[in-house]
Amino acid sequence: YVIPRIIYSDAYSSEMVAYADLILPDTTYLERHDCISLLDRPISEPGGAADAIRYPVIQPDRDVRGFQSVLLDLGARLGLPAMVNQDGSPKFADYADYIINHERKPGIGPL
Asked: What is the dihedral of CA 6, 41, 72, 2, to 10 degrees?
């Protein structure tokens, strides 16, 4: 099996850059919104399950977008039903908007 294209996204350069066909610079954890559920991680215990929302504390000092926002933009450009409104416009402006407005079911958000 041959992987046709390698798309790499990270805030830092690593050994994968040499193998990538497309490199998408990412934000650091201090520069992006994030939605983290510990329910699906092996470090979580049943009695101590937790979720977290990460809020950026600094603005990026370079031309970069968070990878989650890039994926949402790509999904909207591809016209994926969960990513676009009925008129074809993007449903979410960026990942921060997604965290606030996405519902897996009515009244149930991303976590």
From this structure: 20
